[in-house]
């Protein structure tokens, strides 16, 4: 199957209506353990005239081996980038959608701290639901777009940046909880991960409010 590279068609059109695009995409929404992460990538009209980096795709379409180099090219290509996080405990406390909003709001604030101005910015969000506006303390202009991570290069950049950051974080957590094999499954529901939960119970990094497995908690 031929994979079509993302383009800047939508971004260039939207940048006729605003000065800045803050592209967002989430990673880790369906994981059993670890945080949810939202990547942010900033694009202006000048940046939108630059060539899309080689190999840039939605993170799910880039092999794990190639993701770090593609993420590095993506970060160098955009005007600013960041990753916002919401912990497993926050997912338990407020639910996954609000946790996504918290992570997205933190990602937006991080690029604002790097100099991105919100006054005439548009948030380009992958998906069909605006989960960031109700959480962010400052009003945002948000445009959800289905399959933006596949079709819009700025969102693809946010996707791969977030994926590499979260995978690296799960590899670090693996060092203290190696029985769950997070270096391989990244906290997702692989058979080995579910087997480990049954054998070991839940760690403090699992989303304990989710129906994960028939195992007692350890905390």
TrEMBL record:
It is an enzyme of class 3 (hydrolase). Its cofactor is Mn(2+); Mg(2+). Its EC number is 3.1.26.4. Residues 19-219 form the RNase H type-2 domain. Keywords: Cytoplasm, Endonuclease, Hydrolase, Manganese, Metal-binding, Nuclease. Its main location: cytoplasm. It catalyses: Endonucleolytic cleavage to 5'-phosphomonoester. Manganese or magnesium. Binds 1 divalent metal ion per monomer in the absence of substrate. May bind a second metal ion after substrate binding. One of its GO terms (molecular function) is RNA-DNA hybrid ribonuclease activity. Endonuclease that specifically degrades the RNA of RNA-DNA hybrids. This is Ribonuclease. It comes from Microbacterium sufflavum.
């Amino acid at each position: 199957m031929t994979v079509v590279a993302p383009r800047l068609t939508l971004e260039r059109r939207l940048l006729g209506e605003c000065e800045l695009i803050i592209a967002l995409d989430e990673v880790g929404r369906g994981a059993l353990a670890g945080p949810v992460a939202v990547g942010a990538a900033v694009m202006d009209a000048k940046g939108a005239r630059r060539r899309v980096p080689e190999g840039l795709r939605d993170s799910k379409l880039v092999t794990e081996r190639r993701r770090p180099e593609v993420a590095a090219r993506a970060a160098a290509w955009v005007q600013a980038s960041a990753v916002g996080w919401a912990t497993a405990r926050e997912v338990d406390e407020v639910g996954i959608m609000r946790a996504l909003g918290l992570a997205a709001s933190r990602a937006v604030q991080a690029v604002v701290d790097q100099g991105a101005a919100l006054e005439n910015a548009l948030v380009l969000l992958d998906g069909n639901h605006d989960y960031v506006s109700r959480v962010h303390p400052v009003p945002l202009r948000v445009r959800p777009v289905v399959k933006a991570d596949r079709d819009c290069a700025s969102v693809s950049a946010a996707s791969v940046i977030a994926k590499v950051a979260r995978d690296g974080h799960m590899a670090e957590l693996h060092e203290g909880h190696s029985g769950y094999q997070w270096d391989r499954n990244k906290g997702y529901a692989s058979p080995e991960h579910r087997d480990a939960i049954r054998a070991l119970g839940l760690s403090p990094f699992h989303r304990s409010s989710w129906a994960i497995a028939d195992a007692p908690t350890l905390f």
